[in-house]
Design goal:
Length: 448
């Protein structure tokens, strides 16, 4: 029986853009991007990142959109639609697994963000020494119960939104939150650019220093591209299954990628001028937004308000992203096991909370929760972002390039637009040859 008749999709093109940008823009843009740029020599990384977007990001986003809108089903079933061979149906399962792993640590970080928002509101991010901020973060992430309660809160809220469905859950929340996110970002960026260190910060962000570029830089750029665009695990496939026929897929892909990249760069424009104005080191790793920024905020005029704005922004971005992750797994459980949406969302949420408890405890309270010198939190991140997403991306590009009939690929590409046939040929060529080979090379290269 086809379930596609009773699937409710996004109501308008604006809804499509806001919801899809909602999944893409998240911790990846504001928390991960700046520190990865910082570790990889600023502008040189940006150039490599732009190439990744053009040659990997854009074609794979389009491929996911194509599979999703054609198949009109959850990610697992979608990849069974165009081929009976069991290997291809596994793409969707890989996605479900990646979804669990990402949520397992993402929920922990969203929990920290809520605490920082609270600390900012009560004025606790003011008037301390740098050591005190290092201590504050260590105490929060190392605590036993409190971060777990935050995770339960985050996942409870996400579960509630997802159980409301695509239109009154995802679309409604994105329509309200995304414009707020853009306003907060522009306000903060305007302020950052007025600081004394603005020039130095922008120089660091944009000046290409190739002496820091190594093989690792390419892997980081590719991993960041997949993570930031929510690629390689069926997230965009699931969202595109809610797109109507009148959506122009290439245009939507370009819009979503441009906004996602713009937001990441604006996050850099907010963070680096501030960091340089107050003399802290830009390459601080994941602690950048929790350890470094409080030092910066407290020295700024109106720092408390800026801190509140910043952590609110981070929370909004993260919430709309974790919604999409929960949606991938929920849509699968809902359609596969004939369970109601609400029950499916609850079951998945409970499993995620259990995983997140391990991830959270491994950050300090129980350091013995580790393997090969990495704690569970880092293992979840490493397996999902560095292994499963590129693998998934490679599988999806091979699937779209070689398995799906070229006519179907073209029909979805050319619907509602007049793009030239040559553009399509370039796209199909990249999917067939360039994307899989590049991913494979970078992937193997990084392990050597
Ligand atoms: N793209 C989001 C971010 O930048 C995270 C995310 C949401 C994601 N859904 C995803 C990452 C699916 C990979 C796959 O924070």
């Amino acid at each position: 029986m086809s379930k596609s008749e009773n699937r409710k999709g996004f109501t308008s093109k604006l809804g499509v853009i806001l919801a899809t940008v909602g999944t893409a823009v998240g911790l990846g843009n504001i928390w991960r991007f700046p520190y990865i740029v910082g570790e990889n020599g600023g502008g040189a990384f940006l150039i490599i990142y732009f190439f990744c977007l053009l040659f990997l990001g854009l074609p794979v986003v389009l491929a996911e959109f194509t599979v999703g809108r054609r198949a009109q089903s959850n990610a697992v079933d979608a990849y069974k639609k165009f081929s009976n061979h069991p290997i291809w149906s596994r793409i969707g399962y890989l996605g479900v697994l990646a979804g669990f792993l990402i949520m397992g640590y993402y929920a922990v970080v969203v929990g920290w963000t809520i605490d920082y928002l609270y600390e900012a509101i009560v004025g606790n991010l003011q008037g301390h020494t740098p050591e005190a901020y290092t201590q504050l973060f260590a105490e929060l992430s190392g605590d036993t119960i409190y971060p777990i309660l935050l995770v339960i809160g985050v996942m409870g809220l996400t579960c509630y939104i997802i159980s409301q469905g695509v239109q009154s859950g995802i679309e409604k929340v994105s329509r309200f939150l995304m414009p707020m996110l853009f306003l907060l970002m522009l306000g903060l960026a305007g302020y950052a650019l007025s600081l004394d260190g603005a020039y130095e910060g922008l120089h660091f962000l944009f000046y290409p220093d190739f002496s820091d570029v190594t093989a690792r830089t390419f892997l980081d750029a590719m991993g960041q591209c997949f993570f930031s665009l929510s690629l390689g695990m069926g997230c965009l496939t699931t969202y595109a299954s809610y797109f109507k026929k009148d959506v122009n897929l290439p245009k939507t892909a370009v819009q979503v990628i441009s906004i996602d990249t713009l937001v990441a760069i604006i996050a850099g424009v907010i963070i680096f001028p501030a960091v340089f104005s107050f003399g802290v080191e830009p390459t601080q790793g994941p602690g950048l937004v929790y350890v470094v920024l409080p030092n910066v905020f407290q020295k700024m005029l109106g720092g408390q308000i800026l801190a509140i704005m910043f952590y609110a922004l981070l929370f909004i971005a993260a919430l709309t992203s974790i919604m999409s992750l929960l949606e991938v797994v929920t849509a699968y459980v809902h359609e596969k096991f004939n369970l109601s949406r609400t029950k499916s969302a609850i079951v998945v949420t409970i499993l995620v909370i259990i995983m997140a408890i391990f991830a959270s405890l491994s950050c300090g309270a129980m350091p013995e929760l580790s393997l090969f010198g990495k704690n569970i939190f880092d293992i979840f991140d490493f397996i999902s972002a560095t292994i499963l997403l590129p693998l998934g991306g490679m599988a999806i590009s091979i699937y779209a390039g070689w398995i799906i009939d070229n006519k179907i690929l073209y029909a979805e590409f050319a619907k509602n637009n007049k793009y030239s046939l040559n553009l399509f040929k370039a796209y199909a060529f990249i999917l067939k040859y360039i994307a899989p080979v590049c991913i494979l090379i970078v992937f193997i290269g990084s392990f050597i």
